[in-house]
Amino acid sequence: MTHLSTDQLLKIQWLLHDCGNQVHQMTNEQLQVFEKGRDDYVTNVDRALDRRLTSTFSTLFPQDGVITEENVQSRQEFFSNYQRLWLIDPLDGTDAFIQGGSHYAIMVGLLEANQPVAGWIYAPALSQGYYGSAERGLFQSVEPPFGSVNPPRSSQPLAVKEPEPPSLQFCPILIGYKDRQRYGELIADLIPGVQFSNIGSFGLKVMQVVTGRAGLYVYLNRRVKLWDTVGPVALAKAAGLVCCDLDGEPLRFTLDVLNPETLAHSQPIVIGWPRYVELLRSRLQWAVALKDGMRSQLK
């Protein structure tokens, strides 16, 4: 990984695994859920992992900035002159976690010179771990069962797989529940044969595309934050996926395309295999424009 020692890489991998064990333990003891905004929830598990990950990464990388989802003050690190920033989501897919699902993940991303360069995604309930960079490649960690005290046993190269090209009978796209509610009908009209699917975590959705279970992931509602995207986008780019907006412009991680208070992306997000992006991006763009135009006329 970019400028990271083998010892540092092992410590990150072990930390995420042990945080997964902490999720298991805290869930069995007492899960507490709090509302931090409209349709936005956090648990005592998110907060505990946030504190632990902040402390450990600050110790491991004292020259770098560390930004985490639940530490609002840490967002100021983005405006400092750090060459490298660690973006951490202690529990990506909190809603799925609260509902007892398994598609949630602990995520870490490294932003260097405003570019995602490395990422880690660990899904405790699935015993699945992914990490890598364009420099070193992509890997899947071989994990012991969820709740085991044993560390990850080994890693192996991740099997990156491009799905069959889109057709009238086959066109798998990942899209979030809210985006599907808003745009799904028009997208289906403009892309015959589209097959929608959804799982909780942003990062795990991206990995579904990397491993060929879908050709494209679209996120359109502009609420996703840097700690959701840096790690997964680093892995997607390392796999050869296109990461762009509906205009075909590359995703950017600079202040001009971010909300300065929340660090949310203003660009709609398209992550997919080149053939899927080339064939479907303009149709997705048209569906969004039509729907948003209809909504503006009703106001």
What does this protein look like?
The protein has 299 residues and is α+β, with helices and mostly antiparallel strands. It folds into two domains: 6-157, Fructose-1,6-Bisphosphatase, Chain A, domain 1; 171-298, 3-Layer(aba) Sandwich (D-Maltodextrin-Binding Protein, domain 2), CATH 3.40.190.80. It is built from seven helices and 14 strands. It has helices at residues 6-29, 44-60, 94-98, 177-190, 202-210, 226-238, 274-298; strands at residues 33-37, 40-43, 65-68, 84-92, 105-112, 115-123, 128-133, 137-142, 154-157, 171-175, 194-197, 216-219, 242-244, 269-272. The protein has a seven-stranded mixed beta sheet, with helices on both faces. Helix 4 crosses helix 7 (274-298). The radius of gyration is 19 Å and the shape is globular. The termini are far apart.
